[in-house]
Amino acid sequence: MRGFNPVLRLSVGLLIFCFGSVGAAGSERDDFADGEVVAEELKVSLRDRIGAEVLGERLHTEPLERERLLLRLGQMGTPRALGVLHRFLTEVPQLTHDEWRAAVRALTPYAGQRQGREWLFKVLVGAAVRDERRDAEAVPALTEYGPTMRFARELSAMALAASGDAPAIAALAQALLRGGEPALMARQALLAHPPRDLQPLVSVRGGVSPEWVETLGALGDQRAFNSLRHWVRAGGPAVQSEAAVALLKLGHLETVPLALHWLERTQEPLLVAAATEILLASASEESVQALKKLFTLAPSRALKLAQDYPRPALASVLIESFGAQTREGQRSLLVALGRSGGDVALKFLGEQLTRSEFRSDAALALARSPDDEARSVLERALSRGDRSQHAA
User: Fold this and answer.
1) Measured distance CA(104)–CA(117) in Å, rounded
2) Which residue in 368, 378, 299 sits closest to 338, CA to CA?
3) Which distant-in-sequence residues (6+ apart) come within 8 Å of 289 by Cβ?
4) Quick one: pLDDT at residue 373?
5) Nearest to 343 by CA among 317, 374, 319, 318
6) Alpha-helix runs per DSSP H in 114-236
7) How far apart are CA 375 and CA 378, in angstroms?
């Protein structure tokens, strides 16, 4: 810097020194701030870890506080807390039903994690709870569980469905395949929280259950079409019948020819019932013949379908089967005739108004009938001074 002004050179040196010091100080402050963040994270992690472990110890030493302690672990929502829950439930399986309910509530936030999912599934299917009246390794019949455990099992199913996690949906599919109460609870949960991805539900190995098929139909998801179509051909009567009706509900009328085939070729009540429902829902002319056949195989099912799909054309079949019904069945049949309407049904109901054992039921069926002419039948009966109408 020969020839450079000494004063100016001194000033430049001072500036470099000052800015260098500020930069160094800033760097030191950044390092300090980063250190504070790390320390705080370690502090929180240590607090969670110690807190979860303390709660785990108290679960063993303070049994009267277990429900509250379990809920505390659920509120923490950390992997450490889930680990403590898992360890406790593994070590102390004989909990009261109230404690199991609290445990399920604690596990709910962890439904998307493996250990949480596995315990929720065990509770749902009844494999987690041991009956103290039996051998410690025995699994009691699900029907022995009271309302508290039923709530816990329903909550387990809801938590799995609400998580939307693929393995959780697959677990619910396994519950559907088991049938019984676990299947009903899994169905309820899936309908409340329909899965975004249907693949975990339909990707099952081996045979399927009617509950699994019916749930696919109830979801109303067109992505289930291929699976349902497969089981119409490959399943047993219970699965085939449910799959055929499910396809119809999805809007696929290709099941109508199949229904006609079953109507002609089989005496299997489940298949004839499915054929009858398909033909009634599609307003097929053969539905009357199908209902008549079903009354000979499964009268209660035939009566239910007649109520669900009322048509005037069904009246003759209903009247023909009236004498073969139980008293309760006859009352239901009168209701079905009222819903069906039409001249034949209304004439029969009007005749029952003169019979003391049926007058009240017939009057109620006429009063609730959607056919406008039913009102006239009642009015004419009243104008004749029929004492039976006072009950109506």
Assistant:
1) 10
2) 368
3) 263
4) 92
5) 374
6) 114-125, 147-163, 166-178, 180-192, 199-202, 210-219, 225-234
7) 5
Q: For residues 351 and 360, what is the distance between their CA atoms, to the nearest angstrom?
A: 12
Ranges under pLDDT 70 in the chain = 1-50, 93, 128-145, 385-392
Cα–Cα nearest to 70, from 79, 386, 60 = 60
Going by the DSSP 8-state scheme, the letter that residue 388 receives in this structure is G
- 29-84 per-position pLDDT tens digit: 444 444 443 344 434 454 555 678 888 888 888 888 989 999 999 999 899 999 99
Cβ neighbours for 281, distance < 8 A, ≥ 6 positions apart: 248, 309
Segment holding 342, helix H or strand E: none
* The two structure tokens encoding residue 40: 């705080």
Cα–Cα distance measured from residue 341 to residue 319, given in angstroms and rounded to the nearest whole number: 13
pLDDT tens track for 157-190: 999 999 999 999 999 999 999 999 999 999 999 9
- The Cα–Cα gap between 370 and 233 comes to 39
- Rg of the chain in Å (alpha carbons): 35
- Residues comprising the chain, all counted: 392
Residue 80: partners with Cβ closer than 8 Å, 6 or more residues away: 48, 49, 52, 53
CB 157 within 8 A of CB 176: no
Structure tokens at 294: 């079903």
Give 38-41 contacts, CB < 8 A, sequence gap 24+: none
Is residue 321 within 8 Å of 293, Cβ to Cβ? no
The Cα–Cα gap between 265 and 258 comes to 10
Of 166, 163, 131, which Cα lies nearest the Cα of 145?
Answer: 131
